[in-house]
Amino acid sequence: MAVKDDIEVRLQAAFNPTRLEIINESHQHAGHSGDDGSGESHFRIVIRAGVLADMARVARHRAVQQALGDLNQRIHAIALDIG
Length: 83
Prior knowledge:
Elements: H1 3-15, E1 19-24, E2 42-48, H2 50-53, H3 57-68, E3 77-82
Parallel strand pairs: 2-3
Antiparallel strand pairs: 1-2
């Protein structure tokens, strides 16, 4: 499964978001540190979910990282826009 698809499955299951955008930004980092050549190393995630809205910023980020679990090992960078 593609990393983007795996991210979507995990975040849908964990948070049932009202909005979820997963943007692959790996092409912007080609040749830079952390680019493993897979084209799936850098992502921007926009997520809106009721359960996340009441959490403090750090808690929201931790919750998303926890939901991604071992997938974090395949991703070099994630930019999060959470609400």
